[in-house]
Every structure is written in structure tokens, then in C-alpha cells.
Amino acid sequence: MPPSLSDIVEEARLSARALLDYGEGFFNPTVRLGVTGLSRAGKTVFITALVHGLTRGGRFPVFEPYASGRIARAYLAPQPDDAVPRFAYESHVRTLVEERRWPSSTTDISELRLVIEYQRQNGADRTLTLDIVDYPGEWLLDLPLLNKSYEQWSAESLALSREPLRAKLAAPWHAHLATLKPEAKEDEQAALTEARLFTDYLRACRDERFAMSLLPPGRFLMPGNLADTPALTFAPLDVPIDGSAPDHSLWAMMRRRFEAYKDVVVRPFFRDHFARLDRQIVLADALAAFNAGPEALHDLEAALAGILDCFRIGRSTILSALFRPRIDRILFAATKADHLHHQSHDRLEAVLRRIVAKAAERAEYAGADIDVVALAAVRATREAQVQRGRDKLPSILGTPASGEVANGEILDGETEVATFPGDLPDNPEDLFNGGFRGLSSSGAEAADYRFLRFRPPKLERNGDAEPALPHIRLDRALQFLIGDKLQ
Amino acid sequence: MNEKTPPRRPATFKLDDPGVVLMDPDDSGRLSRGAIQIVPEAEPAQLPVPVDAPLLPARRGFRWGTLFWSAVAGLVVLGTGLGVLNLVEDLFARNEGLGFLGLALAIVAAVALAVVTMRELVGLTRLATIEKLHLRAAEVLISDDRAASRAVVADLLKLAHQTPQLARARSALQSHTDDIIDGADMIRLAERELMTPLDEEARRLVSSAAQRVSVVTAVSPRALFDVLFVFVASLRMIRQLARLYGGRPGALGMIRLLRHVIAHLAITGGMAASDSLIQQMLGHGIAAKLSQRLGEGMLNGLLTARLGLAAIDVTRPLPFNALPRPALTDLAKDLIRKREEEQ
Q1: Dihedral angle at the C-alpha atoms of A254, A259, A265, A267, nearest 10 degrees?
Q2: Closest to B157 measured CA to CA, from B180, B133, B127
Q3: Is the interface score ipTM higher than 0.85?
Q4: Would you state the pLDDT for residue B111?
Q5: What torsion, rounded to 10 degrees, do the Cα atoms B122, B126, B132, B138 define?
Q6: Which residue from A37, A439, A483, B270 could staple onto A479, CB 3.0 to 4.6 Å apart?
Q7: Do residues A404 and A366 make contact, with C-beta atoms less than 8 angstroms apart?
Q8: Domain, as residue range, for B322
Q9: Domain-embedded: residue B238
């Protein structure tokens, strides 16, 4: 698609903003950390744990500025954007520590600014400002839409929905779609029904048993304040990719609304929160995909590849910092590593490396530093060896959330269990070649992997001070993401 | 892990099931066959992180001292060159034969100087490599980074190539480099494989130097000889240790090494004084009561051993982690045993 006028205007706005930021950052260096991840990947928990660790003090032996004592203190400061809600850090901490629940799914965007006071290695006192944004992961799926026309998107969505696993879920929508004629006169009721059925299909795909990731447009699942507006009332039609819509047809209406969706929803979201990032961490929940099956794994791969294509990645230069900020470090993190024994972390990393291989290669080619890590921002389990007859199973101990099913029994959320989730293969390719069974194709008894959801850990309180949250490799992630800015 | 075993099925055990027994990590008692035993592992997050005293004080700022000495050295070289040039010219003016002789000697001297400088430089780079390796290994022990650990081990193998008695240990380590081993574990493995024979040898070197010092200072007639002998013996010991662990210090390298050893001694000295040294000194106060010379000799020997331990810390390419650090008490035992045998 050749760049349209709106694209060029958009580009100019981004550059102007970048220039302004550069002027501000000259005296008060700011790092915009993009916490990227699909829904349920653990963005909110990651941000909460990061802020908690830095402000209250945590165990970060690998995070050099912190471990060597050069960070004097870190505190929350008023955020820069007045129109964006504040990240409810305090209530998230309370949920985690006192109620031992994970924060509920994020429904709207929020922002937080963290100021780190530190001393440079040569002795000079400095501050570093860290801006972090939290948002519903579903919205991220919209970014790839920016480069697509309505017809392209329709064709892709339809092709995807006709894959065997999804076709079952999409049956009602497909049935309704067959009754529609794209060239017919525009009809609000037909559009409404169509959008509703399409949304139902997307929602069904997200179920734990299928754990599909590639479900654009994201606002259909998490509408925010735009629910029921025309911009959210459209759906794919069976139209040719290179055709043009007749005036006042259903097709033209859908197409107009698709464009409106991009203008009203996607572009501002990208402009305000993603175009100006310096560092990025991409969180991916590979374990949910292992639970569900090979299809979910492929879906995760496709979704991440589409999203990462939208970011501006590459080595930072003065010119790029002035007009077109680039992301010069990306960390790919497989979250919830505490659901596996640490002996398997290397294999989990290998799987993630394979999932993001294309994106990582492209980023490296552009000159950005990349790293892959298996981490748990809040560690919910302990490790144990289970001896069953002759077998020795490297397992984990923890309290599963209430409602989780183990051995056909529903747990109440208080019982502690030891669980061995299954052996990850040495070679990640084995997983991608469909070599395992998940919940989507078989019952819970036959699945090759079973990762239970655990409750946050019980923390021992030491006097009045709030306890430090245990983690796995959060310090390594911090060192990679901002360690060099704190030299 | 054996690749031929089929992947194991997922399994979950409730802790309050009657068939499940929760065991203590330290408790290794066997239970009946049917029971499922669960042994919680020590949490790495709750294990104490070893904090080592930094080997070298952090350098900061521009090094004016180095600049000064470099400039002075340059001037001296220029001056000497000029003097030699004048001398050769004078010789030519007096007699052609003498002139050629002088020229030849000057060239030989220049070539020899170049070679010596080269060797010094190589020695210094090797020392720097070892120091860097030590720091990198210490980092990996904390960060557990696999890729970095592989790099450290590769460099270590290159370094160990010059020590023939490590051939078997080297090949053993080489065979492990492709296994799935976490970063820190890899370093520990390398330490166990490569450093065990070297550590033994180092301990022997230090204790023999300490013995020599204690004997000589006990019988030497003058304090001046004592001082001289201790100095020479310490230098020799440090050089031997450096060679043992793969460094080849020349004169400049020795100066640098000596500085680091003393700096390290200054950092760790406080700790040592608080524990073993005081105890040793008090113990050997009895020896001193018996004979003043004997006590002095013993004390000097212990101080030499202490220096040797600091030298081991500085010259060893890996930090002590999997293997125990040789303690002063061990060396002191060697010293006393030797003394008793002699008596």
C-alpha cells in the first residue's frame, strides 16, 4: 500500500513529538520502557513487581547498579500525561500480597512514572526517569491492522477462521455470513448481528482450552469506552482482495468503519504509547500454549511476529533520537517460569527463541541488542524432587488457584500440591511439528503438558516493612533493559 | 538427561494425600516403597549470596600517574638513545673499527631490549587476561548466564593449554561444553576439573616458602638478612604461583602483581587478623616463650603464608566457589608439623 496522506501527517506528528521529548530529556534523561505482551502474559504483574522491587527493595544480585548500592532510592512521581489513568500500583500490590490473588485482567490503559536516583560510576549524582505503560494485551493485536486494507484483513480473518480447530467455533458466524451479500444495500441490523457473532467467535477462541492469540481487532474483546460505537460494529465479509466497494453497499459501510477504527482507535494508541519507546520487553506466556496444543503455539508465533513488525527497532543514533526514536534493546521473556523446575528453563528459553526467531533476527539485523530469558516476576512456587517408585520427578510446590483441576478433582485454592508439568523436549522443533497433545484436541488426562495456575506466594512479614516479592531472573531482565543507562 | 527415555507424563500430587510424604531436605531416611516422597529443594533465592572482597580497588578518573611515568620513561629512552648515538659517532671519529663494534653492540642491545619489552608486554597482557577471566567468572557465578559461561570456559581452556599436566582435565571439560549445564554450574565444573591439581600444587608452594622463611629467620644472625630473605622468598613464591596458574610475569608484571597482592592483603587482612592470625599468634606465643627466635621464625612463616594466600587469590583465573579456599590454619599445620619433625 503506498503511503497515504494520513500516514505522512502521522509521521510528521511523531517526529515533532520526538524532537520535543529529546529537548526535555536532555536535562532529565527518560527511558520509555515498553512492556509488550498479549493478554494474560503477565504485564501488570511484571510492572508491579518491578516497581515494588525498586522502591521497596528486593533481591537483585544481578542488577549491578542496585546490587553495588549505587541506586540511592526510587520513587513514584506524577505521570506526564494528564489524560491517562494512573497505574493502580498500590492496589495491585495489596491484591498480590494480602489477598494472594493475581490482579484482574487489565481493561484500560494506565501509566506510571518511576524516578531512580543513582550515582554514576564516576561519582556524579543523576536521576533516571522510567515511564511505564500498562494496557490490555488484546489491544496490541490491532497494531498489525495499520498496514492492512479492509479487504486484506477480511481475507486473512476468513482464511484463519476456516482452519479446522477454529472452524468449529466460528460455525454460527460462518452461517450468518453466508446469508449476506456484500454488494447489497447497507443494513445496520445485519452489521450488528454480524459484529456480535464475530465477537462471540473471537471470545470462544480465547478459552483456556484453545488459548488462541491471533484475534484482531483487539477492541472487540476489550472495548473500553468505545463499546457499541459504529467504529466497533463491523466484521469481515467475503470480498475479493482487489475489488472496490459499490457506493452505499454493506461492503462500503464495513470498510468505512474499519478505516474509522484504525483512525480513532489504533493510530492514537500507537502514537501515544508505542512510537516513542527506547527499550522493550516482550512478555509471552508459552505455557498456556503448551496446555492448549500445537495450534495455540503457532498462533502465538504468528501474533507476536505481526506485532513486532510494527515497532521501530534499530540502533539509536543522534538523528534517530531527534526525529524517529528507535528501540535499541529488546528482551523476549517467557513469563511464568516458576511453573517449571529450573532445570527446564533453558528449554523454555529455547522454545521462546524459536517462537520469536524471525522478529529477533530482524531486530539484530537492524542493530538492536536482543536477549531471551525465562522469568517469573513474582515467584509463586518452590521446587521439589518427587520420588515415585523409581522415577524422580523435578517438580514444583505451590497452591493452585481455586477451580483448577488436577487428577479430575477440583481444587479449593487452599490445598498445596506438588506438580510435575511434563518434560519439554530438547529440540523446540519437536513442539512445532505438532508432536504433542493439548487440551484443544484431547481430554485433560491425555495431554502432554499440564501447567496449573498457582496463587501468589505466602510472604513472611518481617516487622512493619512490606516483604520483598520473590522472583526469577527479574534482576537479569532489569540489568539488560536499563543497566547500561545507570552506568 | 538421557534422550532415549520417552517424555514423562505430567503428574500432580496433593500434599495432604495419605500416600504422599513430605520429607526434610536433610533427612535421607528410606521409606516404604509405595509412598510418594516429596523433597523440597533449598530455594536459591534464600541462600546467602557470597560476597567476595573485590580483587582490585575500582579505578576511576584519568590516570595521571600512569601518564607521568610514561612520559618520564619516554624521556629516558630518548636521552639514552641520544647518548648512545653520540658515543657511536665519537667512536667512529676516533677509529672506524671501534665505531663498527660500537654500532653492532648498540644494535644488539636495541634488539634485546625490544625482545625483553615484547616479553614484558605479553606477560602483562596475560596477567590482564587472567584478571579479566576471574572477574567474568565471578559475574557468571551470579548471573548464571549460559552463553557467557561458555565463553569463559573456552578462554580458560586456551589458557590451560600451556599447562601440560592438565591435558586430561582439559579433555574431560571439553566433553562437557555441549551438555545442558547452567552458567554457574559450568564455571563450578571447570573449577573442579582444572583447578584441583593446580590448587594442590599452589598450597605446596606456599607452605614450602613459609617453611623456608621460618627456618631461615630463626637461624639468621642479622635482621637485615631476615628482611632480604623474606622479600626474595616472597617474590619467588608469587612468581611461581603466577606461572602455575598460567601467567608469565616479567619484571613489570611482577611489580603489578605485587601491587595487587598487597592491595588484596590490605582488603582481606582485617578479616584474617580477626580470626586465624590472632589465634595462631597467641598459640605460638608459647613457642616464643620457649625461644624468642623460634617464635619470630614461626611468625614470619605465617606472614609469608598469608601473603601466599593473597597471591593465590590474585593469580588464580577462577574465584573460589566449588573448591574450598585454602585456609591459613591448614598451612600453619603444615608449618608446625614440619617444625616438630625437625625437632
Answers
A1: 160
A2: B133
A3: no
A4: 95
A5: 180
A6: A483
A7: no
A8: 195-342
A9: yes
Domains of chain B: total: 1
Tell me the C-alpha distance between A282 and A41, whole Å: 9
Nearest residue in A to B1, CA atom? A426
CA distance A313 to A278: 9
pLDDT digits (tens, 9 = 90+) for B120-166: 898 888 888 888 888 888 888 877 777 888 888 888 888 887 777 77
pLDDT tens figures, A292-307 = 888 888 888 888 888 8
pLDDT bin (cut points 50, 70, 90) of residue B55 is very low
| Interchain pair A384, B33: CB under 8 A | no
Lay out the sheet containing A71-77: strands in order across.
A71-77, A110-119, A125-134, A30-37, A279-284, A329-334, A369-374
End-to-end CA distance of chain A: 43
Q: Does B18 touch chain A (CB under 8 A)?
A: no
Nearest-neighbour CA in chain A from B174: distance (Å): 20
Residue B8: count of CB within 10 angstroms of its CB: 14
Q: What is the pLDDT of residue B63?
A: 82
Whole-structure pTM over 0.90, yes or no? no
Instruction: Please tell me which residue of chain B has the smallest CA distance to A412.
Output: B14
Domain spanning A5-135+274-379+470-486: CATH 3.30.110.10: no
B231 domain-assigned: yes
Q: E strand or H helix at A395, and its extent?
A: strand A391-398
Phi, psi at A252, each rounded to 5°: -65, -40
d(CA A111, CA B322): 46
Q: Residue B31 above 70 pLDDT?
A: no
Give the model confidence (pLDDT) of B174-189 as tens digits: 777 766 667 787 888 8
Which residues have a Cβ under 8 Å from the Cβ of A226 and sit 6 or more positions away? A219, A232, A264, A265
The nearest CA of chain A is from the CA of B16 a distance in Å of 8
Rg from Cα positions in chain A: 23
* Cell 448481528 sits on residue: A193
Residue B2: pLDDT over 50: no
Domain assignment present for residue B120? The answer is no
Q: What is each CA distance from B160 to A90, B167, B241, in whole angstroms?
A: 54, 8, 14
Decide: A59 and A468 in contact? Cβ < 8 Å.
yes
CB burial of B148-180 (b: ≥16 within 10 Å; e: otherwise) equals: bbbebbebbbebbeebeebeebbeebeeeeeee
If phi > 0 it is left, if psi is from -120 to 50 it is alpha, else beta; for residue A389 that is left
Considering only the beta carbons, identify the residue of A61, A346, A384 that sits closest to B38.
A384
| Nearest-by-Cβ selection for A449 from B10, B13, B146 | B10
Cell of A179: 446469508
- Are B54 and B266 a contacting pair, CB within 8 Å? no
- Distance from the Cα of A433 to chain B's closest Cα (Å) equals 16
Q: Return d(Cα A229, Cα B167) in angstroms, integer.
A: 75
Count the residues in chain A. Answer: 487
Upstream peptide bond of A421 is cis (omega within 30 degrees of 0)? no
The residue type found at A8 is: I
Query: Above 50 in pLDDT, residue B10?
Result: yes
Reported as a single tens digit per residue, the pLDDT across A148-185 is: 899 999 999 999 899 888 888 899 999 998 988 888 88
Helix, strand, or coil here: A126? strand
Q: Do B15 and A415 touch (CB under 8 A)?
A: yes
- Write out the residue limits of the CATH 3.40.50.300 domain(s) in chain A: 5-135+274-379+470-486
Place of cell 561444553: B177
Q: Report which of residues A407 and A283 the model is more confident about.
A: A283
CA distance B263 to B247: 19
pLDDT confidence bin for A215, thresholds 50/70/90: confident
Q: Is B101 part of a structural domain of the chain? A: no
* Highest mean predicted confidence (pLDDT) among A352-361, A435-444, B58-67, B286-295: A352-361
